[in-house]
Write the structure tokens for this entry.
Amino acid sequence: MTQNQNIKDIAIITSLIIVIISLLVSHSLIKRDILPLFATIPSDLLYLMAAVISSLIILGSSILAYRKTTERQKIIHGKRLSKDICDFIKDQGFVDIKVLAKRFNIKTNEIIELISENLGKEFYFTKDRKTIISKQYIRKIIIEEIKRIR
């Protein structure tokens, strides 16, 4: 499970807990157990207020979850880098192509120590099947991307 999926799961669970708490609080308010100030407000209006507040809380936590999952995905696949390469780079902990550029040796055109057991079809391997050999098209694509950023 990726870090983004964990953040989404936590946000969903948190928003469900907040909804349950807000419904319990609104039910208590409607029964006028907590605040006697609300005794003068009609019950329908209290239900509407509770629904609006819980909807705003759900919307806020959804926006927060979306922002948390997208803010770290700075490597974007497109014409230059394919989705498989970007996913592999993200899985290795390189959330930004600039971080990868620091680990990339331009003189030898090799990616330094990117190790994974589950590699995509686009990658070529050494005999021990742990280190990526930077073949010409991968080498060219990554060098172009790094030069574009620098």
Summary: The longest helix spans residues 3-30. The chain has five helices and four strands. The helical segments are 3-30, 43-70, 83-91, 97-103, 136-149. Residues 13 and 19 are 10 Å apart (CA to CA).
